[in-house]
Amino acid sequence: MSSDTPEVAQLLADDGFAGRLAELAGSLGRDRGEVAAEAAGYLREMGAMHSARAMSTWSRFTTWMFRAHELLVDEEAARRLQGLDQKYSLLFLFSHRSYLDGAAVPVALERHGLSPAFTLGGANLSFFPVNHLARRSGIVYIRRATQDQPVYRLTLRAYIGQLIRNRQNLSWSIEGGRTRTGKLRPPTYGILRYVVDAIDAAPDTEALIVPVSIVYEQLHEVGAMTAEARGARKRPEDVRWLVNFARLQANRLGRAYLDFGEPVPLRERMAELRDDQQGRHVVERIALDTSHCINQATPVTVTAVVCLAMLAADRALTLDGVLRTVAPMATYIASRRWPVAGAADLTDRDTVRRTLQELVASGVLTSYDGGTEPVWVIGPGQHLVAAFYRNTAIHLLVDRAIGELALVAAAEGGPDGLTTATEEALRLRDLLKFDFFFASRRNFAEQMALELAIIEPGDADTLREFTPDDARQWLQHGRPLVAPLVLRPFLDAYHLVADRLAAWEDETFDESRFLDECLRVGRQWALQGRLASEESVSLELFKPALQLARHRGLLDAGPPDLRQRRSDFRDELRESVRRATVVAELVRQPPG
């Protein structure tokens, strides 16, 4: 009797799959039988199933691994999914801040009576003894670097297509790997592309994308991830790693929040985009939309807001000092009607004090109570960790921060403040599009108007036309001013990359050597005070800047004006940093 899982057995017996393998063998100049045998091996490597006995054991194991946190799930959204689960394949695309994320989704599905999902995870986590149990619990281990493995890619495409045809639920990280900064990473497209192809090939099949946000009050692994962002070597996953990771979970770290975004009918969305974009970049647009929806479903944690306050002050604060710093942020969050995790009151003294104490217990903050009253400050070497927690809420603040820099441009520009501000906001949107997820250009303008209305809730005529004097007044009155804290670390990192690129002399561009140079010069600039924060010295911030430079054609030698365009890129970033400095100076002044 065959031990192959249902999908594997179906594909091995499928003439269409055999035909595609034969075509590939011909194009590669290889023997058909050899390619078919290789594909069969890959299928059995991928093959997963849902065994009731194994899943029961796996559930106990993952619950034990999750013991550092109390998992709170969006109950109302989970109930809405129960009806959809009976009709469609549900595609749970989740944010990825921890190794625990892949366990959080199955736990949430089981708790709310939803069909189990096949969870797609990296093959780096496939090691004895947990891998055999995991496969029988629906974990599909897939390889990441497959550019030179055409047989593997075709096999994975076929396997995912079979899962969709069998109307199975799937779950995977839209980011591909864990974030090292706390905010969402750019999405990966491979799995989603295979799902879109499967939907196209099966006209009677529909699947719903369910954006899933998972955010933690604190995490044990943040210190290691921020070190990796500084260039430290990532420790390979093996049994010893798993034992150490499991031991850390014995120390309680508060709550984890899992929220479901609004489900998106995939076939319907594909048709809309093909009509709107003439079939171009459909998968990429769906991935970006999903990332935006994950952000929209992510609540603000008290930890994020307290870390934001401590980073903004960058000095010791009393409890009253923390509360004063948090207050305008709490007002802004309320004005945006953004959910707060656990429905916490961000201005409650006991809530903020408890969060400060929890951050001290984990080493992110230190406290001193030898004076007249206790004070708290970010611990030595902990700024990147604090920034990680702050960045879990950064998506809420990016539009606001861009609006502030746009107002600086308007205050310094010509008489038509609105036109200047709009142009600057759109420029910044394009500058930062590889780091953040924005609405379409049309909807983005509406977002900017909303931010302006929050700063200055006047009548509609005021918002349609304003002068440089109006822009200066709004900057003087507006609180909170967040651009220095939200965008300055990124703009500094981009400026550093642009500066090193302008100084690059070699004909060929060596990315690894270039990034190493950025790290070394970044440390120098940090010591010299040329960076507002050491947070900017990070590979995770350099890489999107480099992606932008590549997008603008600034990496490859050839064009005669390349040196000048690289210099212009550096000057553009220098000007953006200067405008962030203008806002920082206003922050240090009392509001007008």
Automatic annotation (TrEMBL):
| Coiled-coil intervals | none
Topology relative to the lipid bilayer, per the entry, is: Peripheral membrane protein
Where would you find the membrane-spanning parts of this chain? none
Q: For this protein, what is any one GO molecular function term?
A: acyltransferase activity
Compartments in which it is found = Endomembrane system
Check the record and name the SUPFAM superfamilies matching this protein. Glycerol-3-phosphate (1)-acyltransferase
What CDD domains does the entry give?
LPLAT_DHAPAT-like
Q: Does the keyword Lipid biosynthesis apply?
A: no
UniProt xrefs under InterPro entries: GPAT/DHAPAT, GPAT/DHAPAT_C, GPAT/DHAPAT_LPLAT, Plipid/glycerol_acylTrfase
Instruction: Supply the alphabetized keyword list.
Output: Acyltransferase, Membrane, Transferase
List, alphabetically, the Pfam families matched.
Answer: Acyltransferase, GPAT_C
All copies of the Phospholipid/glycerol acyltransferase domain together span 90-217
Q: What is its main location?
A: membrane
Family, per entry: Belongs to the GPAT/DAPAT family.
NCBIfam families on file: PRK11915.1 (NF008883)
In Swiss-Prot or TrEMBL terms, this protein is called Lysophospholipid acyltransferase
